[in-house]
């Protein structure tokens, strides 16, 4: 079976919603929804009857994009033959297209090395890629030291999936490898929780509770903190006194934390990790998450 045929079989068997393809062998024809770049090097395959909500009016070389299920998805293939200037120009074009689009996924074979994503060294391409993506405020999905390319001359991490922070909060699962692609590139598989329509914002009100007042802690906080009463400060003003009351009562709140029903917090150091694991299990079971595959070729 050819690699292209295996790609089609794998995507259909695993019921992917979206496949992000780099360095494909050929474009798929109708009835498939297949969006490719001008060079037929990068593509996005949309399945499951999902509609393409937006797409570029004109094909660009080495990358394409589409908006599906409210997510802007960019597929890129930066071949090794590109010069440094051509690589920088490609990234500049991608940045221009992606800058104002959210939520965002930028995935592709960049043929760039950096210790930021587990490479043993950082190359010029890696530095250029980091600089180009910094204004987009994206995070890397496939972190760690699992190689995405395994060949006769060694292994490396060159297939990368970046996403805007709000999508990092919706990651349900992520896997590098595990599928037979007959390629020396590993597949990157991930599932995203479908976003719920935003509900009305709940206003948080702060009120005093006299019965629960810890008078000793309140007096310590009020009398022991002299910053508000320093010369030239706000200690004698209404604003200064109110700020001091808030701080004293906040100190008490730390001693008796309020109940937070249903809040799950991961203890990792990364803010992104904490947010990812604070999703509600009930929401995950109510609807199958969006399933994506990258680096399938």
Automatic annotation (TrEMBL):
Region (Disordered): 219-243
InterPro entries reported for this sequence: Endo/exonu/phosph_ase_sf, Endo/exonuclease/phosphatase
Top-level taxon of the source organism: Eukaryota
Domain Endonuclease/exonuclease/phosphatase: residue ranges: 71-188
Pfam family, any one: Exo_endo_phos_2
Name the UniProt record assigns to this protein: Endonuclease/exonuclease/phosphatase domain-containing protein
